[in-house]
Amino acid sequence: MTEHARNDHRLTRRGFLQAGAAVGVAASPLMFSSAAFGQRPGASGQRILVVLELSGGNDGLNTVIPYGDDAYYRHRPKIGIRPQKVRKLDEHFGLSEGMVGFEKLYKDGKLAIVHGAGYADPSFSHFTSMAYWQTAAPNSGEQYGWVGRLADAMAPEAPANFLINVASTQSLAVRAHRHVPVVFDNPANFTREMFFEEGAALRAAPEAGKTSNASQAFLRDIARSANLSSGLVRKAWTDYRSPVDYGITDLGLRRVAAMIAGGLPARLYYTAYANNAFDTHVVQNDLQPRLLTYTSDAVSAFMQDMARIGRADDVTLMVFSEFGRRVPENTSLGTDHGAANVMFVAGKKVKGGQYGEPPSLTKLDPGDNLLFTTDFRRVYGTMEQQWLGQPARADLLNGTFKPFDMIA
Known about the structure:
By secondary structure, the chain is α/β, with parallel strands linked by helices. Helices cover about 30% and strands about 15% of the residues. The chain has a single domain, classed as 3-Layer(aba) Sandwich (Alkaline Phosphatase, subunit A), CATH 3.40.720. Strand 3 and strand 4 form a beta hairpin.
């Protein structure tokens, strides 16, 4: 199928803040830059990238199902999804039965499917492989995340609230040299961690006067920025009202929508279906279809919400998982850790369709895994260059990769 079918470790102010020392931020490092206090909110026309991680290793073969290939059913006689239950996209591939939202996005030309995404010498460890995807540095010890390095490249002066991670703890993907991401799970309760007795003093606006004491000025900046960032997030969430139904779980996307609707200046968002949800070693067909339905519902709702608030032209969402699953089913009616997988890119400006070469189901590696045909960093590069307009830079992706012609 064709395509359209390093750094100083001394304790600096930023390093001090990233470590969370002295300020007690509740699992959420916050930007202290003085730009926080005069920054304009995000506006229509500023492109935004949202990244959704499906943790646990989603089985791509039972997500984008090669129902037209007999080899699929030979490898999976019991858990292979039968053609009558597939949401057919063409004569060869279809989606899992509950992925109504993805089917509509695809048929509306707003969903791209990338086949065979992976990397050389794959790791079958959740922790290791996820780190490779989060840093865009396979078989490396890169300390900064891909999204964090992208933030540094897009805005080297590190304006406040540029990078948001919806999670209970910060992801490696958003770790940056210059930026400190805003990290929260429940926006209604997002605040600095403190003892009760400290509350009144820490919530008070710090004095804005000049001081010759560098440490005092630093701590003032931290306090003011922490108060501002948490206040912006809580206000955006409080003001957010939407009739759009996100289904059983919003995967953090409703919270992303609230921040965008609230005019926060963030250009990069990272969220996840967490807790290794997709690690389906046992009785996979009892679990994975439900997870895919929830994912499809949430992504489709998010796209509807972007259209509702007039930001559909400005937002693109990319979906990945740390690896696929082994091709043959196991004796527990599940699948074990594999290699190559599918990725998704959704948005109004996306040229929908299928990209990359589908891996062969008859030419597997010695461990019965799919051989990757698309370096996943091609998709990352597409987001950087085509969507966000960044020049190609080898340091962002630890190499150069030709982007897909995926963005209108």
